[in-house]
Design brief:
Shape: globular
Distance between the termini: 34 Å
Largest sheet: 6 strands, mixed
Helix content: 40-55%
Number of strands: 8
Structural class: alpha/beta
Length: about 240
C-alpha cells in the first residue's frame, strides 16, 4: 500500500468520523463517483488545461475503480498526474525522524499509524466495504507521476517560522507512535496543514511548464486552489 499517500487528509477524516452520526454524515458528504473540475488558460497560440478531481481518502472500491479509469484516460491523452504526499526525509537519522513524526502528530492531533482494522474507525468503515486510497487503486505511478507537495520538514519549519517552535510535552514523548494519542494538539494547525500547502501547490501548478495536468488532491484543497487558478487567469469550463 502507498502508506504515505494522503495520510494527513485521511487522518483528518478519521477525526471527522468520530461522532455518533458519522455514518449519516459520511455518506451524505462522500461522492459516489469522481467529480471532474476543468480549467483552461489561453495565451496566444498556447493553452493550458487543468483537471482537478477532489479526492476522498476512504471510500468504497467502486469509487477508486471509476477514478482509476479516468486517470488512465487522461494519461493516454498526455496529461501529467500531480498528487499530494507530504514526505519524510529519506536520509535523516532515526532520532530526527522520530521527532518529526511526533511534531506532525501534534499538528494533526492523531497518530500517524493506522489501518482500517482498528477500533479507531466506526464499524461501517471497518466492515470491509471501504478501503484506503493508495497508488494501486488510483492508478498513480510513483516512478512517473509527480508529487507536488511540501515535505514534512517544510510544513513544520513553515509553521514554526510563524508560530514558534512546536514544543513536545512529556505526554508527546511518552506516548508511542502506535498508541492512541491523547495529548494536547498544537493551536493554529490549519495554517500548516492547509494554508502553507495550498499556497505551495497552487504556485507550482500555475508556474509549471506542463500544459496538461490532472490533479488528485483532497476535497479540502479544492476551493483554495481553484481560487488561486482563477486569480492567475484560468477559467473554469464545463
Amino acid at each position: 500500500m502507498f502508506s504515505k499517500f494522503f495520510k494527513i487528509s485521511a487522518l483528518l477524516l478519521c477525526l471527522f468520523l468520530a461522532s455518533s452520526c458519522s455514518k449519516i454524515i459520511y455518506l451524505a458528504f462522500t461522492p459516489q463517483h469522481p467529480h471532474l473540475n476543468k480549467f483552461q488558460k489561453y495565451s496566444g497560440d498556447d493553452s493550458r488545461s487543468i483537471v482537478f478531481i477532489p479526492m476522498v481518502h476512504i471510500a468504497k472500491p467502486k469509487f477508486y475503480k471509476a477514478l482509476k479509469k479516468k486517470v488512465e484516460k487522461y494519461k493516454s491523452q498526455g496529461y501529467k498526474i500531480y498528487y499530494e504526499s507530504p514526505a519524510y526525509p529519506k536520509e535523516a537519522d532515526s532520532i530526527y525522524k522520530d521527532t518529526l513524526k511526533r511534531k506532525m502528530r501534534k499538528l494533526i492531533g492523531v497518530s500517524l499509524n493506522y489501518d482500517l482494522d482498528t477500533d479507531k474507525f466506526p464499524k461501517f468503515i471497518r466492515n470491509g466495504n471501504y478501503v484506503l486510497q493508495n497508488a494501486e487503486n488510483t492508478g498513480i505511478s510513483l516512478e512517473n507521476d509527480v508529487n507536488v507537495d511540501l515535505s514534512v520538514e517544510e510544513i513544520i519549519s513553515g509553521f514554526e517560522a510563524k508560530y514558534g517552535k512546536i514544543d513536545l510535552s512529556d505526554c508527546d514523548w511518552e506516548t508511542g507512535l502506535k498508541e492512541t494519542y491523547n495529548c494536547s494538539k498544537a493551536a493554529n494547525s490549519d495554517y500548516a496543514l492547509e494554508t502553507l500547502r495550498n499556497n505551495y501547490i497552487s504556485k507550482k501548478v500555475i508556474q509549471t511548464k506542463d500544459n496538461k495536468i490532472l490533479m488528485l488532491y483532497g476535497q479540502a484543497h479544492y476551493k483554495p486552489i481553484r481560487d488561486k487558478l482563477i486569480e492567475s487567469g484560468f477559467e473554469e469550463v464545463d
